[in-house]
Design goal:
107 residues, mainly beta, 2,3-Dihydroxybiphenyl 1,2-Dioxygenase, domain 1, four-stranded mixed β-sheet, three-stranded antiparallel β-sheet, 1 helix, globular, disordered N terminus
Amino acid sequence: MPDLAHLGPFEIEARESASTYLRGPHDYQRRSRKLTACETIGMGVLGLRASVPSALERRVAAVEAPGLGIGWTDGDLGRGPSYGIEPGGNRIEVTTGGRFVYDPEEP
């Protein structure tokens, strides 16, 4: 993503495939933003973080009851497993996983 300017005061933390992981100046997580290049216009995935595991369990139950859930992912850099839904073709994933301690030695 070196061609993008003025994204804010974010630091590039990691790159993996077509994704760049960013961290803001006051973020308590190692990688709080993920930008992924795609071939179409629009949002690929909106990732949200539940406040606690029990909140995630309630959200999963709420979307599974009417059959709206699309299942779990394994997670990716700095983010644990997440549960996905796809309302109107827009993918949303909710997780509680993540690293909360900043370690400058971590790749």
